[in-house]
Amino acid sequence: MTTAVRGAALRLEAVSRRHGRPGRGATALDSVSCVVPAGSFTAVVGPSGSGKSTFLQCAAGLDRPTSGTVRIGSTDLGGLSEAALTRFRRDRIGFVFQSHALNLVPSLSVEENVVLPLVLAGADPADERVLVRGRELLARVGLAGRGGHGPATLSGGEQQRVAVARALVTGPEVIFADEPTASLDPESAGLVLGLLRDAVRVDGRTVVMVTHDPAAAGWADTVLTMDGGRLR
Question: Could you write out the three-class secondary structure of the chain?
């Protein structure tokens, strides 16, 4: 197995993703290569249809590329079975999606949503360490005392802050955020982006964020621009 680049949290090597039949389909990613350093905040920008969402899906192991290699740390995602890839995403990757419906489970309380990755990994939801972890993260995102509430009682911005807390709960190597501020007012967006920035600055996490918003991209250390399925 090829050794990962020292200090690289994420590495894509000639990654392409094509949809449809060979010769007649569409190319969403066209031989994309890049390295994202550990402990950095990277924004991926570009117009609608540029390939930035496909970039995130392939980089995060939510979709498999047609060709090329994706590594997170020293792990080649292409070498994992579907079951192993699911476990890898659960244990070592955090996600913040654009849609509140995708982010939170409506039948669970706010605190239960935060600790859900730990429970899915086999932790006892009644374990005091799990409860403390959930409460600590809710306090960190400014929602102390709201753990027993349902997600529907929170504003969109508050729900996204819960999603950030859940993304942090396993101590992931990389957090992928897909348009996390798209439906938020500027104040709520700033709070969410500040939390992602703190995940890098305070915890040393790596954040990769897809966004169409130049103001959101301004929070990142590095901005990658996609156009026509390629990095420019």
Answer: CCCCCCCEEEEEEEEEEEECCCCCCEEEEEEEEEEEECCCEEEEECCCCCCHHHHHHHHCCCCCCCEEEEEECCEEHHHCCHHHHHHHHHHHEEEECCCHHHHCCCCCCHHHHHHHHHHHCCCCCCCHHHHHHHHHHHHHCCCCCCCCCCHHHCCHHHHHHHHHHHHHCCCCCEEEEECCCCCCCHHHHHHHHHHHHHHHHCCCCEEEEECCCHHHHCCCCEEEEEECCEEC
